[in-house]
Structure formats: C-alpha cells, structure tokens
Amino acid sequence: MREHPDDAQRRVSHETIYRSLFIQARGVLKKELLAHLRAKRSIRQSRFVMLAKVSNKDKHSVMTALIKQSHKLPHELYRSLTWDRGTEMSGHRRFTLATDIDVYLCDPQSPWQRGTNENTNHLLRQYFPKGIDLSVYSQAKLSAVARQLNERPRKTLGYETPAERFQACVASIR
User: Fold this and answer.
1) Which of 65, 75, 134, 139 is deepest in the core (most CB within 10 A)?
2) How far is residue 128's CA from residue 122's CA, in Å, rounded to a whole number?
3) What is the dihedral of CA 66, 67, 69, 72, to 10 degrees?
4) What is the signed CA dihedral for 17, 23, 27, 31, rounded to 10 degrees?
5) Strand (E) positions, 4-153?
6) Does pTM surpass 0.85?
7) Quick one: CA torsion of 160, 163, 166, 167, rounded to 10 degrees?
8) φ and ψ at 13, to 5 degrees?
9) Smallest Cα–Cα separation from 162: which of 14, 27, 12?
10) Using CA atoms, how far apart are residues 154 and 161, in angstroms rounded to an integer?
C-alpha cells in the first residue's frame, strides 16, 4: 500500500496471502510453510456445526454440554471458541480447563467478530424459528439438523460441504 497507494492492482491483503498458502481443496496448510507464519495454525475454520441439547440456559448446563460436545472432536481440530457476552458463558474458564480450548469473548454488540456463528444462527432459523421452545427437541433431532447443515455446500468453502472439509482436516492430521 505504501509503495503503490494509487494502484489497487498492486495491493494484497493478509487474507489473500493466507488463501494462497492454504491448499484450496482441503483448507490445510502445507507443513513446510507453517514455520513462517505468525499464527501457527495448520487448519483453517471448517464451518462444521455441532449442536448440543442443554437442560437449562444457566452457565453450568451450557458449559457441561459444550465440554461433552468438544470431546467428540479430535483435539487438533478444535483450538478456540468465540462467543458473545451472554451470562451462560461466564463459566468459560471451567470450559477451557476441561478442554484446553481457548475461549474468546466478543466485544459488546459486535456480531461481526463472530461471523460464522451469526451465519449459522441464520441457517438454524430455517429449522427452529426464533422464539420456539427448543426443549421439545431431542439430541437426535439436533444432530440430524447439524448433519443437514454440514452436508450443505458453502460458497465460502469453494462449494465444498463442511462435512467434506472436516473429513479432509481429520485425514490430514492422521
């Protein structure tokens, strides 16, 4: 930008650089390039959805459900969780201690800091309209909805499905 301030064709954003480093078909970084990055993540966010039934919206119930769900994933695929500042997340330290997953809290009224979550919430409204009583749904029903969302191609993934991306990530760590 400093060298060519008036020539947009000669500028590159950090996201363009990262995208060029990641293998497009799999979203996995070539191992030999990892050492040169400030953030040492070899796998980018997969948009994989997991839904957990909670008995209550209190922090203990939410944390217990999140801990249980997180143990279903390979540790290498689940490094952080970004959440809003709801009271149910006040137990995030317990979650981090139990899972070794860092929790990042968004700034107040800043939904752009968790765009994937906001988009997923929008997709979930097709199955569960706002204001509906979710307690009537079983974990099996929630898992079926998550499976449907994970089998839906996403533009942001180059029209791959989150399930395909997830499987590629799992395969790359084994």
Assistant:
1) 65
2) 10
3) 160
4) -90
5) 22-23, 28-29, 80-83, 102-105
6) no
7) -100
8) -85, 165
9) 27
10) 6
